[in-house]
Amino acid sequence: MENVNLTVDQLYGLGAAVMLQKLQAAIPASAMPIAQAAVTAAKNAGMAEKYLSKGAAFMQMKAAKLDPDTIKKWQDGELQFNDGVFYARKIISLASGNVEIFSDALLKVDGVSNISKGKLADGINLALERLELNFDRGTGITEKTAALTALVVSDDPALRNGVIELRINGKTVREIPVNQFNKARKVGDPLNGYDFKHPILVKAGDDIQIVVHFVGTMVTSTDVDVIEFVLIGDATGLRVNG
Predict the structure, then answer these.
(1) Coil, strand or helix: which one is 228?
(2) What average pLDDT does the segment 5-9 reach?
């Protein structure tokens, strides 16, 4: 059984040897070859041992949950850690009730979304650490032309007082009041994001849904409202540096 006392913060910043010792005490012996390969892959990808990011350390802990193809590519040195940034925009004029932003109806279109069908592409696994929300209201704007920024107090109360629900494979993993998105969680961070204290594992092929629960109806008349959500964290991806 995994040792529930082992946290991401205890792995963050450790060298490979010490990290493996902690993992060995925390996960089943059958998963150790995967953990070994994960740490080795991080080193081979050019990441200094003592500077593994929090998301990368989290991914080591969850290595046994990744699909066999990803594990094999990791063991073969074909994967590396990259900055993972995935976004989707949607017009929400006169919206009310519950509206899906990330969903299986989402298509990958430049300027609208860089993710298709609400799923990460093969080989991409994300340690989700931050969720950002941006908004714009203007005459004749579209997803591609909106000047998206953080919500402000004067923005529509139907959205500002709502709740954001994040679902993975149909299971609700977080419910966040919208008013938390304009309160910086880290010094120097922009006021448009919510930082997760505990990262969330999103595997390749997982269904990602972001649902906005509006309180009332957006009051715009002739203007157009556009919302954007951005998923940010450390992601596995094919090596691009040989």
Answers:
(1) strand
(2) 49
Cβ proximity of 192 and 134 under 8 Å? yes
Question: Would you kindly state where each structural domain of the chain is located, as residue ranges?
Answer: 8-65, 82-238
Q: Which amino acid is at 112?
A: V
Alpha-carbon span 190 to 131, nearest angstrom:
12
Query: pLDDT tens, 18-52?
Result: 655 665 666 555 555 555 555 555 555 444 444 45
Place of tokens 């715009």: 220
Q: Distance (Å, rounded) from C-alpha 172 to C-alpha 165? A: 7
Q: Which H/E stretch holds residue 43?
A: helix 32-44
Around Cβ 190, how many Cβ atoms within 10 Å? 12
| pLDDT tens by residue, 133-167 | 999 999 999 999 999 998 876 678 899 999 999 99
> Between 12 and 222, where is the model more confident?
222
- The SS3 call for residue 224 is strand
The yes or no reply on domain 82-238 and CATH 3.60.21 is: no
Kindly give the residue spans of alpha helices, DSSP state H, lying in 30-98: 32-44, 54-61, 68-75
Phi, psi of 160, rounded to the nearest 5 degrees: -60, -30
Two tokens, residue 47: 């990441």
Res. 17: pLDDT tops 60? no
**Cα→Cα distances 123→3, 93, 207, 237, Å:** 28, 36, 15, 6
**CB under 8 Å to 51, separation ≥6 — which residues?**
13
Residues 60 and 11 sit within 8 Å (Cβ to Cβ): yes
